[in-house]
Amino acid sequence: MLLPTPVILIINQARQAAEFSSVLEKTGSKVHAVTSFEEANELLSFLHPDIIILPNQLDGVSSGDGRLYCQQIRATLAPPRPVLVLLHPSTDVTERINAFRYGADDVLGDPIDKNELAIRVLAHLRRRQEEFSNPLTQLPGPNLIRRMLEQCLYSDKAWSVMSLDLNKIRVYNETYGDLAGDQLIKALAAILLDCADETEFVGHLEADDFIMVTRPEVAERKAELICQQFDNVSSRFYPKGDIARGYLISTGRGGIRRRVPLISIAIGIVSNTVKKFQSYIDVLTTARDHRNVAKQRQGSFWVSDSNIEEELQAASSGQGQSLNQNGTLQNNSDPAALIKHISRILVVEPDGAMACLLQETLALEGYVVQVTSSADDALELARFEPPDLILLESNLIDRKMDGWNLCRALKADDVLSKIWIVMATSHPDQSLALEAGADLYLPKPFDIPNLLSEVSLLLRSRV
Of all helices (H) and strands (E), which one includes residue 315? Predict the structure, then answer.
């Protein structure tokens, strides 16, 4: 796997700096050499070295105290600051200890054997890489990811960046525990490493947030392969019962339960062959925007620069949205107002008083509301003009069809299956509503504010 090129800054007299540079470049590092602390300050305004090698006393025209410069670096550079290696000519222990007190991270003899210096530098770089790796997966963390993306931006080569994360990981952790979630994240890391070759970079930002730097010509093929491998592996992290059922059950406030799809992966792909990026933040943000579009699809899915417009058009069709010039979604009006003015709700409730209360409450919220107490009438109304959401009581008065069977009939219909169904019931078996196909189980009696909140969340999810 590819790693960012280490950067070393040498501050010393020209001859010695040149000697050190020739040796340290053989370690695979990018070496910059200057002969004064002033030149070093100019470089540090845009250069982020991993290591600075400097003398205890810089002689000549540009003289200066290396110990004081170490103190300055510690006071002015924000973390992660470079490792400060001070070359000290004295063998006196007290003087060397004082150099550490000023801020040096390592104090070496001066003169020093060039091979020993190279080995010391490699040891510091190895330790720095370990320090900047994610503790869970041991993959490069945020600091190394930033370094890698900045090097991509300065490179004249073509590259692509994939942003990856897991869908519904929070519900998975709530159901099975954080330790199980960590194992799933480590499995994703292993898949990414398996798919990456020696020219590609894999990093772990935080939680389930990963990136991969690859070549544009293979990016989409890699994304498809990662999706396939993850789907093949992820089933091992569920009990057989959950796999057979095909979804998890998330429990919210007031005993409200909803069906949550099994975990999947979303990938967003960007390339410098399509867009010129201004910073590494720009790269990450754009890739995450593409990833969020991929999350709108069921199951594992990827979205790249080549199909982003098609996916955005599909997501926005019929939803009162359009595309900005930069390819992101914009609402044509306030989302909350948009939901209330266009959303139709069918209330199927045999209790007349409750039906009246629900109708008046939902109408005051701006929804278009129809009410019936019959399952047959509800099915006919839904087919005539499909509502956006059905609030359904399980215990209906119809002899032919109760609420459970009505829910199954709606979900079995290709046209009506996309209607949100909130099943309100006092039945003690809480799983029956979700098994019948309801998207949300609402235990009776329920609080009206909770109902309104859940209805709004469901309707917003398709805007």
Answer: helix 308-316
Instruction: Determine how many CB atoms are found less than 10 A away from the CB of residue 226.
Output: 24
Specify the higher pLDDT residue, 306 or 247. 306
pLDDT score of 59:
81
* Ranges of H-type helices in 196-307: 216-234, 240-245, 280-294
Beta-strand relationship, 64-65 and 57-58:
antiparallel
* CA-based nearest residue to 378, from 367, 390, 368: 390
Distance CA 454, CA 458 (A): 6
**Domain co-membership, 291 together with 174:** yes
> Of 313, 331, 349, which residue sits at a domain end?
331
pLDDT digits (tens, 9 = 90+) for 256-310: 787 788 999 999 999 999 999 999 999 999 999 999 999 988 899 999 998 998 8
DSSP H helices, 132-263, are 142-154, 169-176, 178-195, 216-234, 240-245
Q: How far apart are CA 418 and CA 414, in angstroms?
A: 8
Look at the chain and report how many structural domains it folds into. 3
State pTM to two decimals.
0.78
Check: CB of residue 301 under 8 Å from CB of residue 266: yes
Measured distance CA(198)–CA(191) in Å, rounded: 15
Q: Kindly state the DSSP code that residue 208 receives in the 8-state scheme.
A: T
Of residues 282, 153, 132, the one with CA closest to residue 204: 132
